[in-house]
Amino acid sequence: AQSVAQPEDQVNVAEGNPLTVKCTYSVSGNPYLFWYVQYPNRGLQFLLKYITGDNLVKGSYGFEAEFNKSQTSFHLKKPSALVSDSALYFCAVRGGNAGNMLTFGGGTRLMVKP
Amino acid sequence: DTGVSQDPRHKITKRGQNVTFRCDPISEHNRLYWYRQTLGQGPEFLTYFQNEAQLEKSRLLSDRFSAERPKGSFSTLEIQRTEQGDSAMYLCASSLAQLHAVAGGPETQYFGPGTRLLVL
User: For the ranges A34-43, A66-75, B62-71, B100-109, which has the lowest average pLDDT?
Assistant: First the structure.
């Protein structure tokens, strides 16, 4: 079975500071990893994904994520946070042997304060 | 608007009633997914279609739940004899699977705004 852990329910960061939202995973086979963001009363919006190749993946709105196979992690990062980045962030995994379903973590609420 | 759309956005019903939700995927997307999201949790996979064929179903999808995609375009999710535990956000996603692509790896799933169900 595949699983995702987001160890922090909430991350607080000051505007302009770098941010990191943590994600670790467990899958059989090659992992395919995704980050989505959810704003209040809205669906999930795709940010970025890792399939293969370069361990640093760049996505929308200045976000990037680093794949670390040895630590089974896929942390989301941004060099300089904006107040508008405040939202709920979900990490998801699709394992190579697990069909097409995405398995999501529990989410991390990011609060960026001015 | 060329994104995934869902209708209704909100539904309040009494326990024991049947409800039906509709999802319209992004045009030409051949895969369609249903997920359920309860408060404070991440989405959980329910089922998915490739064209009109339902290919995977989660154990979460009890006998009271049924999904269809009759013409390979829009999909409906019906819940019969609703229970209070069915209260959740029901999310639909679609993707374009390039079955003969040279490069491997899964396509991106794009989500709709969801239907929030409250069972009283």
Answer: B100-109
